[in-house]
Write a sequence for this structure.
């Protein structure tokens, strides 16, 4: 994995430059707030997938950099709008854009990133890629809407959770891994496998993310722990935990979910409940099962260091610490 | 004008059905909030322009209905996001979407409308039209950003005002009037004229809108009078008025602009200043000069009832009462 990532490092730097060039030409407000958001870091996992798959397929052009940038811009648009929706104050250890510039500019920054992304795809006349991107974007928005509707509700079931995850997280991963298959006709035969790989990787990523919210420290997360619960989101660990609780234990959870407030007592009570029922290990096994499915897809792809990296990526995503 | 509008009434009804069909297939949240917003009315001026120009050019297909709907959806996306930005509580006499469903869902509703609009253009493989739409959308977003930056500032000058108007209002009018010229190669020779016509019409529409905020009643506007000033926006009438005021008169305006509060005394003081300096008549003349430019473009188009309607539309836009 590490070796394969080294191979794409120069291309990832080009993705950064490509994004920087878009912001440089933008109006002052976009340039300032946009630069702040992109400089805030992020793992650039989605562009890395575009670059890695492009390399695996033997692609020689420069659409990998363009679409790596476009996908990161779309992803960032959803993040800044999600932070407004969640009233989030911190992301990656720094104030969110909405906290720093207000909701007003942040709504427009997201709109600008969405629309400019589409325009960047239009510049190269790429209708099939645009179809994938606009569909993935709509799925993300719809997933967020379903999530908003379930917000604060204890009765979110696992099927609804999986529906939200597939739309909100897995769709854009599947777009990232499968778009390179549209770059040349000879690549098309790998498209379904790459899409399935990306979907499983995305689900695996989201479940690992749910767990990090419970197991990581505030400093490594760059935001408070138990953020999901405080924001009213019932993640997989809690969906698994709830049916095993007594009424009064459930009430503790319900209060955090509906008030957004987590006292030190409630936090240690909830940690004890998660421990007693072995939830973290159980949910980790669920994530692993998706990791295995992703890896099973990857191994059918053409061999080489890139293929091996794709096969290892799901484990890497589960073992990450932020 | 009235006769020409009668001719396109059946097509306008198809535009409504087309939008309705998109909402019918959408997730519950979009369907509910989206239906509410579209049922709230609006003059459907932009789709009417697409239909009227298509008819003038002799277009026989059904892309006029599709793009009429797409343009109204993009326009509506900007409205719902603008109402979040302006903290608006009323539009067209009813609570705004953000007031009724909260900022969270309304951010997503706008995102959905933007993205679904692009997808509707993608369905028919129309890259040149998509280019026009995405550019007009970016201009609107950038115009809103420049406006936001000038918000609450007395030193907004006329050049900045015109820049904002061209981006925020005129661009989508120009898209509406010129997109039909892309429907068939034979129509292309009218494209520049139609774009210029739409730009002038849009500027004329916006200046008339500025005046309505001062001259219409709350019941015909469907929102409080002097809304622009309360939202921190210095419109053309005030840009013209300010240099003629004494310091203490200017201070009254500044207070409304920065606090958002308009007392009954301040309102009558400001009305007296506008009257004393003949601002409404002066700004109306500015709107008329753009109307004349639009009409001068229209008369060079192929003759007929549709051409006459386009020639009359700017006057209609200035004389409207809401």
């Amino acid at each position: 994995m590490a070796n394969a990532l080294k191979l794409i490092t120069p291309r990832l730097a080009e993705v950064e430059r490509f994004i920087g060039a878009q912001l440089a030409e933008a109006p002052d407000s976009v340039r300032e707030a946009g630069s702040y958001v992109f400089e805030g870091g992020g793992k650039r996992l989605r562009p890395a997938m575009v670059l890695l798959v492009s390399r695996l397929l033997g692609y020689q052009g420069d659409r990998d950099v363009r679409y790596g940038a476009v996908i990161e811009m779309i992803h960032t648009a959803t993040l800044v709008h999600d932070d407004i929706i969640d009233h989030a104050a911190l992301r990656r250890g720094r104030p969110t854009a909405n906290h720093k510039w207000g909701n007003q500019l942040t709504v427009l920054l997201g709109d600008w990133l969405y629309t400019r992304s589409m325009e960047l795809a239009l510049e190269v006349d790429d209708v099939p890629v645009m179809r994938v991107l606009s569909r993935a974007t709509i799925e993300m928005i719809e997933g967020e809407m379903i999530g908003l509707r379930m917000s604060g509700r204890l009765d979110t079931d696992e099927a609804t959770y999986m529906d939200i995850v597939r739309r909100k997280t897995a769709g854009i991963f599947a777009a990232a891994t499968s778009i390179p298959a549209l770059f040349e006709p000879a690549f098309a035969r790998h498209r379904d496998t790459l899409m399935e790989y990306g979907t499983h990787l995305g689900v695996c990523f989201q479940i690992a993310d749910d767990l990090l919210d419970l197991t990581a420290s505030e400093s490594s997360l760059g935001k408070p722990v138990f953020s999901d619960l405080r924001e009213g989101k019932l993640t997989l660990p809690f969906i698994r935990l709830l049916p095993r609780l007594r009424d009064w234990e459930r009430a503790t959870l319900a209060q955090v979910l509906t008030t957004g407030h987590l006292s030190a007592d409630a936090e240690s009570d909830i940690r004890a409940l998660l421990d007693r029922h072995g939830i973290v290990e159980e949910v980790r096994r669920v994530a692993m099962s998706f990791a295995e499915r992703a890896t099973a897809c990857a191994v059918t792809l053409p061999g080489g260091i890139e293929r091996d990296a794709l096969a290892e990526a799901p484990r890497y995503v589960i073992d990450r610490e932020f």
Remarks:
- The first helix of chain A runs from residue 2 to 24.
- Residues 2-319 of chain A form a domain with the Farnesyl Diphosphate Synthase fold (CATH 1.10.600.10).
- Chain A touches chain B at residues 26-30, 81, 84-85, 103-105, 107-108, 110-112, 114-116, 118-119, 122, 125, 127, 130-131, 134-135, 137-138, 141-142, 144-146, 148-149 (CB under 8 Å).
- Chain A is about 75% helix and 0% strand.
